[in-house]
Amino acid sequence: MTATTWKHKDLLGIQELTADEINHVLDTATAFKEVGERAVKKVPSLRGKTMVNLFIEPSTRTRTSFELAAKRLSADVINIATTASSLVKGETLKDTALNLQALNADIIVIRHSAAGAPHFLSRILKASVINAGDGAHEHPTQALLDAFTIREKKGRIAGLNVTILGDILYSRVARSNIWLLTKLGARVTLAGPSTLVPRVFEEFGCRVTHDIEEAIRDADVINLLRIQHERQRQTMFPSIGEYAAMFGLNKERFARTKPDAMIMHPGPINRGVEIDSEIADCGRSVILEQVTNGLAVRMAVLFLCSGGRISAEGAE
Amino acid sequence: MNSLVIKNGRVIDPANGVDAVRDVFVVDGRIAAAAAKDATVIDATGKIVTPGLIDMHVHLREPGRSDKETIETGTRCAARGGFASVVCMPNTSPAADNTGTIAFIKQRAAEAASVNVFPTGAITKELKGEELAPIGSLKKAGVVAITDDGRCVQNNELMRRAVEYSKMFDLPVLDHCQDYNLAADGVMNEGHWSAALGLRGWPSVGEDVIVARNILLAEQLDWHIHCQHISSARSAQLIREAKKRGIKISGEACPHHFTLTDACVKTYDTNFKMNPPLRTERDREAILGGLADGTLEIIASDHAPHCTYEKEVEFDVAPFGILGLETELALALELVRNKVIDLRRLVETFTVNPARLLRLKKGTLSVGADADVTIIDLQQGWTYDVTASASKSRNSPFHGWKFHGRAAATIVGGKLVWRENGQG
Lengths: 316, 424
Known about the structure:
The complex is a heterodimer. Chain A has helices at about 20-35, 60-70, 95-100, 115-125, 140-155, 170-185, 210-215, 240-245, 250-255, 275-280, 285-305, and strands spanning about 50-55, 75-80, 105-110, 130-135, 160-165, 185-190, 205-210, 220-225, 260-265, 310, 315. By secondary structure, chain A is α/β, with parallel strands linked by helices. In chain A, helix 2 (about 60-70) packs across helix 11. Chain A is globular. Chain B is of the alpha/beta class. In chain B, helix 4 (about 155-170) crosses helix 7 (about 205-220).
């Protein structure tokens, strides 16, 4: 695929992307990863552009990653966090967004607790809208950075066994990963308690199991998800202790995984709950590399959605 | 202009077993056996003439939310949609849980309504589900039924007492069937689409358990409970089985539930957010089946106006509900075109069935009855333009839809309140 076939102004989700488009983002991110390793970590690609980080749900990791990505592309960045925003004064999301547009913002990166909020904004705004996580719906840049990391470490995505373990029902990371990995030909297994991993997910081309031993045995990649306390009803499972006992990746279970099985986690991790503390820090864990790669992937997304092109000489 | 001759239409009057081309005479606001001398003639050749249609489930928002709708604008929608009578729900502000609010609604209707307005009263004070409203006094004030619509009485003992008490006053009980624990904070049907869209699910079993409860209470107390806006296949089946056993239970279907499915939510358009939610294709087909075999004997709109600014928000926080009165008949006529029901059944669901349930002296063209008449043009193609709606609100998912057939004229008490291409 050639660079000119990227036609999206917005990145709302993975579901709307083709496999070629996903690969194009990953290829573009490879070029930008190199920028982060230079002494001078800055390119002029988005000079004169304004990016707004509109975070209507708490986030540290994703917000700083987008902010740094934009700064490395020489864009001007404004951060609007939920407490600082006028949304708490009763202004609607529509009005907030129109005000940002009136300031000629070029890119709006939105994190919102309501699924579909970025889609709503994209319908009313001329600016590019980048979804930084909407409720339990999608977190496309997380799935792209996960794919980037898998591809970098394993050399491919097609044909790999990827197990996503944990709170699938309330997870936007799970959904974006499901769409991406199935489009790129991985075999996806979802595992966790039946209340959080309902059978309906089989309709999306995944395997669903509630047997954790079986779910991790043949996995090339194990992606662990945090329990989403903030989105969860109270009745989903008995206790965190029982969750850790039944579904946590502890040492005994880890010992039965394939020797080259890679451990991923989108963070923030709950040590001792979904993952044993030592496993999180072990050599097969790529959790911090995911963070590094997130920066390159977000640079690529901001660049492409702003109409950027990659030439033979690199980003311009 | 209270004397009319409606000439040469195909008259469908299920209450009298009539389906024939004939003239209908109106003298001094009542159906008559012969024409008055100075009667105005309305040519209904090629059109269907029915008793004035009844929509037994609308929200007119007055008192309290006249920015969304008023009795005047809501009943104008009704007239345009072919409805000569509407039954309005009690979730106003203040709630219709007291005789003063009922008196206010009746007074506003007398002053400003285009069509007949029949109020319902609340089952419980402030619709809180905690204490019974003064049901006997509400009956004396003129309510035709009691309901906490928009809410559902969760306390089974209180619901039992409400049904037991209302029976004494010959008042049917209407129920919005929703178990709060099962529905929780759901915003759309639980299933494939809620999983894909990351929206919280409101499972159909949350409707089914209340329908089942109502069947058991109706059976034990031998009194009528009407289940409003049935959206689930299992609920339709429960009602079907209960009716076979002779239990006083009935069910109502809304056009959006028999036309749309939860797949419509995929763009997060809040005009597809209603309560109960749009469900699966299987549920939709079951609602059609319920209409076809008479399990669901009434069609009603659940006309629920909301301001544009209230709906132009994130899907999670948008209010539930859509406009319905102006598109309801056309959507029901699609069922006739698709041979789900015949014209006679369609007319029954809008006339004699709700009239019988609510003991309204309506829904018939018998000599001496109030001259409420709807004339339907089955041929006319038209496109719904919500920006030209008579409602104060614009929240319809059917904007831009092309339809075949609509009300050509609506007559209330012998008075022409709507004529297509004419007075509105």
